[in-house]
Amino acid sequence: PPPGLLQVVKQCVRVPVFVMIRPRGGDFLYSDREVEVMKADIRLAKLHGADGLVFGALTEDGRIDTELCTALLAVCRPLPVTFHRAFDMVHDPLVALETLISLGFERVLTSGCDSSALEGLSLIKRLAEQAKGRIVVVPGGGITERNLQRILEGSTASEFHCSARSARDSGMKFRNPNVAMGASFSAPEYSIKVADVAKVRTLNAIAKNIL
């Protein structure tokens, strides 16, 4: 997020806010210039009150980029750091988990190297068992109020990640149907994705009942 968004969010909520550091979409193999941007973003996030950071970086052969991660972790400290779903693109997740533990990451977000946490549930459970409390394994990817109970029970996870969003129609009365602000596959201009309070409360209730 830009610093302005982080600043306003911190004024509005009391829960810890972790900021994702990702200079672009696509893969997790970063150039030297992109690394400069990531370091600058980390410093700005810390300056504006981030409670933790989230990032991921891989080598071209699908392993954790230990050199880059070590450098970024040094900039992040003393804040806790989560390795995000770049983990789902690694060559060997069991080896990668040990690497993250040795580097000092507090959490790893994963869908179990599959298209959703539900489909990757068996690997998430295996990772949690391997971790033995040395790192928090956080299921994420396609989690909804319909499958959260099954994912938490099946993975033995104590935390989870989801967007809990819904679409809200734009308040614009005049609409130009001939212009699209972006690629054809992007979200329509007159539909806005927002955090859904009802979904968050439902998910919270399900989690509290299980945990």
Largest sheet strand order: 1-2-3-4-5
Main β sheet profile: 5 strands, parallel
Number of domains: 1
Order of helices and strands: HEHEHEHEHEHEEH
Number of strands: 7
Residues in helices, as a percent range: 25-40%
Segments where pLDDT lies below 50 for 5+ residues? none
The fourth-level CATH homologous superfamily is: Copper homeostasis (CutC) domain
CATH topology, by name, is: TIM Barrel
- Number of helical stretches of at least 4 residues: 7
Gyration radius, in Å: 18 Å
Q: Outline, from the CA principal axes?
A: globular
SS content category = alpha/beta
Strand percentage: 5-15%
GO molecular function, one term: copper ion binding
Keywords: Copper, Cytoplasm, Metal-binding, Nucleus
Protein name: Copper homeostasis protein cutC homolog
Organism: Cariama cristata (Red-legged seriema)
Structure description:
Keywords: Copper, Cytoplasm, Metal-binding, Nucleus. This protein is an alpha/beta fold and 211 residues long. It has a single domain (3-162), classed as TIM Barrel. The chain is built from seven helices and seven strands, in the order H-E-H-E-H-E-H-E-H-E-H-E-E-H. A five-stranded parallel beta sheet has the order 1-2-3-4-5. Strands 6-7 form a two-stranded antiparallel sheet. Helix 3 links the parallel strand 2 (52-55) and strand 3. The longest helix is centred in the N-terminal third of the chain and has 16 residues, at 32-47. The radius of gyration is 18 Å and the shape is globular.
